[in-house]
Amino acid sequence: MTVASRSRQGAGVTAIFELRRYRLHPGTFDVLHDVFTRELVAPQEALGMGVIGPYRDRDAPDDFVWFRRFDSLEARAPALEAFYGGPDWDDHKDIANATMIAFDDVRLLRPVSGAIPHDTDLTVITAPHEDGAAPAANAVFITHPGPNHFPRLPVREDEQVTVLVSRAGATTVVAPPDAHVAHLLSGPPTA
């Protein structure tokens, strides 16, 4: 399934991204997808955030994966405060939260190169960060070193990762950082 982004997602020098992955109760992906795309994307974008996705993980169909872009680390907390303290989230949070088992698998990233493709499904590979050349990808991100100034939304700060985003043929894959992913990084990303 592909959902085109409605975001102006350019990766400026100070731009930061969140890679967000929610574990959902079985069978609730479509419920969250509907309320998210119909009610929660436009208000975030009106506050200057870019929304890219959502995507479904072909290996974990009850996972909801998306990116959120901010112009800078300093812009993130006020934008999040305005959204999560505003009427749009207040009106729809009960429906959204009822679908989720966990919402704390979040990476704060900075772009190294490229841009997330809008027009197709993606392969997203997350792996421990190591210096050196990365395989070909449409976009490459690494962990942003800045602090999480909005603790209401947890961010994983336990490891440095490289995130590779590439066009895929069918669905999205978000792989955990493990030995299998390290093996995938030895060649071009695959669908």
Write the layout of secondary structure elements.
Layout (H helix, E strand, L loop, with lengths): L15 E9 L4 H18 L3 E8 L2 E11 L2 H12 L2 H13 E15 L7 E7 L10 E5 L17 E7 L5 E3 L3 H6 L7
Parallel strand pairs: 5-8
Antiparallel strand pairs: 1-3, 1-4, 2-3, 4-6, 5-7, 6-7
Helix pairs in contact: 1-3
What does this structure look like?
- There is one protein chain.
- The protein is an alpha+beta fold and 191 residues long.
- It has one domain: Alpha-Beta Plaits (2-Layer Sandwich), CATH 3.30.70.100.
- The protein contains 4 helices and 8 strands, in the order βαββααβββββα.
- It has helices at residues 29-46, 73-84, 87-99, 179-184, and strands spanning 16-24, 50-57, 60-70, 100-114, 122-128, 139-143, 161-167, 173-175.
- It has an 8-stranded mixed β-sheet with strand order 2-3-1-4-6-7-5-8.
- A hairpin with a 2-residue loop joins β2 and β3 (60-70).
- α1 packs antiparallel against α3.
- The longest helix is centred in the N-terminal third of the chain and has 18 residues, at 29-46.
- The two termini are 14 Å apart.
- Mean pLDDT is 76; it is low at 1-12 and 169-191.
